[in-house]
Amino acid sequence: MSFGVMFFSSTLLSSTFDFVNISRYYYKAQFFGWSLYILISAAVLILSGTELTVDVIGGIYLVFALGLLVSHLYRFAIIRLGWLEKDIFSLIPRVAVACIILALAFHGIYIGIGNLAFGWSLVYSLTDANLITWAMLFFIWSLIYFTYIFFQRFRKEEIKNLQLEAARNEYELRRLRDQMNPHFIFNAMNTIRALIDEDRGKAKNAVTQLSNVLRSSLQAGKQELIPLEKEFQIVKDYLEIEKARYEERLTVDWKTSDDCKKAQVPPLLLQTIVENCIKHGIAKLPDGGRIEIHTHCIQDAVEVSVLNSGQYDPDAGSDASLGLENTRNRLQLSFGKDGWMTIGNHGSEMVRTTVHLPLKGKQDDSSTDH
Hints:
The chain is α+β, with helices and mostly antiparallel strands and 370 residues long. It is built from nine helices and seven strands, in the order ααααααβαββαββαββ. The protein has helices at 2-47, 54-80, 88-118, 129-179, 182-198, 200-219, 228-246, 269-280, 319-335; strands spanning 226-227, 250-255, 264-265, 289-298, 301-309, 340-346, 350-358. β6 and β7 (350-358) form a beta hairpin. The protein has a five-stranded mixed beta sheet with strand order 2-4-5-7-6. Strands 1-3 form a two-stranded antiparallel sheet. It folds into two domains: 2-156, no CATH class; 180-358, Heat Shock Protein 90, CATH 3.30.565.
């Protein structure tokens, strides 16, 4: 069992080095971990009174070389087979079978090389107690390795959630301070006041729509994602207020599909885009313009396109650029590389903003090369 203690110690040291930076120190950790095995093995043999003959030293170095090789190949197989993506209940039977196979192969190679290189006369037997030792050691190696991987992922997910929470809080403050500023509320209230004398029914609806938009702004920091259908309703309420304000100067055209509404979107993300379209596009045109909102399902994703009258100048450096950058950051935090946004001129009179949303929800963008 001394081999087991030594193997475990070297593997533990290797995993400790991996914890620091697995991509940079993995090979060094393997080498130094198994080197520690040599030193411990030699020390135990000396203390037990065993003579360090060529055969004994050769056996120690043989376990060192095989352990280094087999554990590395095992790690390679884990990555290639996608075991790092499995849950713990799927991993247990896979790891159990793998440890048995590795023990059988390790023991066979160890005896074969030892007999040839050092003149041993060992016979391979399925009843050899060393098989259980090897299997247990590989199981311990697996336990340490997967525990580290899961801990690293948990830590990365925790950091990601903290970043997302910070972004949501910043977004909510910006919404209350800037995007949902007193100027917008003032314009909306003036529109409602004018409607009271002209059409009390429209005025009542406008109050309800304004209330919905303000409520959504206050609740934006409490939800990470909402259904696209709910986001569309917020946009519709906002546009109804703006239509009452701009009257015939604002035309809205919806071309959406019910199949796309199951996608999830960060709250008020599309409303912010539409608000920028009006503020930096429609409002600057003497004759006003139109806004078109389209959805398109593509494989495992949904693309939402918002078109507005006007021209996009990427070098303008206005508040719109900051709003677009915040939108990109929110998509990145929520979906990783699977969520993105593009903006550019569409023809000579329109600006097109496209948001790409994955249907499968929040993505784990972490690398599997551990």
